[in-house]
Amino acid sequence: MNGHVTIADVANHLGVSKSTVSHALSGKRRISAEVRSQVMQAVKELGYRPNFAARVMNTRRTGLVGVLVDSLNNPHNTALLEEFGRALSSHSIQMVLGTADRIDDGRSLLAKFCCGMVDGILNTLPELGEDEAVELAGGIPVVTYRRHRESPLVIDFAAGTRTALAYLFKLGHRHIAIIPSDSRAQNGLPDPCFSAYCEQMELMGISPRIFQAPGGTLQAGYEVADSLFASDTTAVLAGNDAVASGLIRRAIECGIRLPERMSIVGHDDSPIAVVTSPPLTTLRLPLGPIATHTVQVLMHAIDPAELMPEPLTIIPELIARGSTMRFNNPHK
Asked: Do residues 282 and 322 touch, judged by C-beta distance below 8 A?
């Protein structure tokens, strides 16, 4: 068939009503399995493609959700996006991705999403707070990752940090450094892992050792590695797995043996953690439940008939691998 194929063409081909074809495609009303099969076969034969604009006018829904993220260089972000995609798919929703490493670009993207492009927005940008995101959205439902107030999602990063420090203390480490995370510093507050680290080191009467890796990328970890290895640090809490991987890469280049010279603990348990050499000890975040909860909050905001999930608290779990070992003091 030449030209644009419509629902009417499919209906005429089968000798059924347009509403029958529409219901078979949307699944909103019960249609016999036989008729549904016939409709799907005719759609395939005729080359029917849904008209997006018509769908939006009829349903007032696009079937799309916009997701704002600051970078795809961080393995944690890409893993989280995959989980968002799975969770949205379970609601027959597809994801439209917008990346913005500058806050002004993020604001601009959010505003564009709100011009009839999407049904809702997931904002993960660290610098774009919930109140500002809601204001910019202009009535389009928006959920700001880890900072929404409805059925809040709480990740107890401080508890995870205390677990990692207790593990390193048990291994005999005392000269423990930290590389804070930019992305966990939100609403004018420092990285909660950094705050917990400082508190625990003070309780132990040990001076903190603080190194910076702006951006939290693998390259940032690589660039801070020389100053870290030149110090008396025997163990380090890296802001994320990408930074930790940068440290490992630089150590390999310099012929520094890990974990003999330094134990390294990452954060997030992203896919990169198991492919480093040595494999990375890290704090795991269960991204599946986190993404499912966040998406369900957004679904409720889009359609109040959708169930609002219960508040969720997550404590990162320490996963011990080959990048940490007992500290052996040669001077003892």
From this structure: no
Residue 57 DSSP SS3: helix
CA 92 to chain CA mean position, Å: 20
Cα–Cα distances in Å, from 94 out to 49, 79, 158, 197, 253?
17, 16, 34, 39, 42
pLDDT tens by residue, 224-249: 999 999 999 999 999 999 999 999 99
The residue type found at 310 is E
SS3 label, residue 64: strand
Classify domain 7-50 at the CATH topology level: 434 Repressor (Amino-terminal Domain) (1.10.260)
What does the DSSP assignment read for 169-211?
Answer: HHTT--SEEE---STT--TTPPPHHHHHHHHHHHHTT---EE-
Q: Mind listing the pLDDT tens digit for each residue in 270-282?
A: 999 999 999 999 9
- Fold of the 64-151+287-309 domain: Rossmann fold (3.40.50)
Burial class (CB in 10 A: 0-12, 13-18, 19+), 114: middle
- What are the structural domain ranges in the chain? 7-50, 64-151+287-309, 155-286
Which residues have a Cβ under 8 Å from the Cβ of 208 and sit 6 or more positions away?
A: 177, 178, 197, 198, 201, 202
Sole residue written with tokens 């968002």? 84
User: How many angstroms separate the Cα of 152 from the Cα of each of 241, 309, 312?
Assistant: 25, 9, 7
Closest-CA residue to 264 (of 282, 284, 252): 282
Name which residue leads in pLDDT, 34 or 309: 309
In this structure, which amino acid lies at residue 81?
A: L
Contact 182, 214 (CB under 8 A): yes
Do the Cβ atoms of 197 and 203 come closer than 8 Å? no
Read off the tokens for 179: 């590389």
